[in-house]
Amino acid sequence: MNGKAERRKYIVSDFVAAAVTWLLFNILRYDEVAAYEGFSAIQSYLFSEPVLWGQGLIPCFWLVLFYFSGYYNKPIGKSRLTEFFSTLITVTIGVVLVFFVIVLNDLPKSFHIYYDFFFTLLALQFIFTYIPRLTITQAGIGRIARREWSAQLLIIGTGEKAVRTAENLYKSGSTIAGFIQERAGSAIHPAIAGQVSGTLYDLPALMEAGNIDELIVALETQDSREQLTLLYTLYRYKCPVKVLADNTNLLGKVHIKTIQGIPLVDITDNNFSAAEKNIKLFLDKVISVVALVLLSPLFLYIAWKVKCDSAGPVFFGQERIGYRGEPFRIHKFRTMYTNAEENGPLLSVGNDARVTPFGAFMRKYRLDELPQFWNVLKGDMSLVGPRPERRHFIEQIVKQAPYYYLLHNVRPGITSLGMVKYGYAVNVSQMIERLRYDIIYYENMSLVLDITILIYTVRTVVTGKGI
User: Fold this and answer.
1) How far apart are CA 67 and CA 62, in angstroms?
2) pLDDT digits (tens, 9 = 90+) for 162-182
3) Rounded CA separation 461/465 (Å)
4) For residues 135 and 12, what is the distance between their CA atoms, to the nearest angstrom?
5) Residues with Cβ within 8 Å of residue 143, at least 6 apart in sequence
6) By the 8 A CB rule, do 451 and 420 touch?
7) What is the band of 83 on the pLDDT scale with cuts at 50, 70, 90?
8) Residue 53, Ramachandran bin (φ over 0: left; ψ between -120 and 50: alpha; else beta)
9) Where, residue-wise, is CATH 3.40.50.20 in the chain?
10) According to DSSP H, which parts of 102-201 are helical?
11) Which of 93, 257, 301, 431 could covalently link to 425 via disulfide, CB atoms 3.0 to 4.6 Å apart?
12) CATH number belonging to domain 152-266
């Protein structure tokens, strides 16, 4: 499935739709407004500087609005009904903005013309946007039905539920790559006797092959503890993990998607909508650029103090594990003496002899974290999200709390709920205690919560309660 090609189709169709709509609307405006304002011919009006600027900028405005609405996030597998309402809502918001910013500057012969303008623009923009979108979506649905596009699904379970789930998923256009026994000796339904790929022991090798798009859990057991234990082991594979909705007692807040009558819950998803994800990413980039520019004098002062405080580099880089389990290099101002970890990775404790005098001051006010705005700008991190850890400590954490892998579904942050509510951890046990707050954040992610955490972080920095 070529998601990028489909996304380009939607973007091009939306741009053309907006350009055609604005051209037709300007022709209407000429009949009702332009002649009244002194234009003697429609050509002179359409080629006037304000109209030409609008003809170029208005389509770009619509693309930006559609991006922030989240419409382009998942170009394949769209629902026609959802698409109708999402297009209607976004177009209505956009038309209101265009109407109040641009159209109300017109001087019509009659005030009532404004009503005609608004509803005409709304109708034109919706029709010219939605019909091409529907055409592209319908073509995509046809390709899925013909299995030209097909998600590769691996079903964990070999009983009646697994068979019923597989039948319905197959009808929806998915391809069943195989079935996994919960354990050696588990009962296998006769209908899938030749399609069993192995047991859970074989799952890592199957996932390593890289041709599985989703994992579907359809076990016969109703033992919640047993199912949770299994689910925790699946988070590491960095792909959607879905369970039947009759097992939602296992979970907190869930997102249910019904496929051919089978309700499935994506337990690797979070509460962020597509629009919120795009807004968060945009704000991350903008705030990072502003912070790096405005704080540059402070950066220079801190760099000078670090050099005066002890021998060694100004900045400290270290590998951390981030989004989707990918390693990246985090940047900080150096707070420890050089070669502080020559005997292996260690967490910092109170009155740590490895920390320099100015390093202790920076840690108190979290100033050592400032270079991570560069990590945010690069896309390695976000302003708010679970703090990234080193692989050495992750391997210890997941032995006691395997659900830690859930946090790799979001970008790590400069600050987090765990940091403002718990603070620094000095051992793995405390890291697991702090993990509770990060899971709470994960299950309740929202822009409002992000803003709240940022406010708490500013308070922490100002009051010096960083340790």
Assistant:
1) 8
2) 999 999 888 888 899 999 998
3) 7
4) 13
5) 149
6) no
7) very high
8) alpha
9) 152-266
10) 113-145, 160-171
11) 431
12) 3.40.50.20
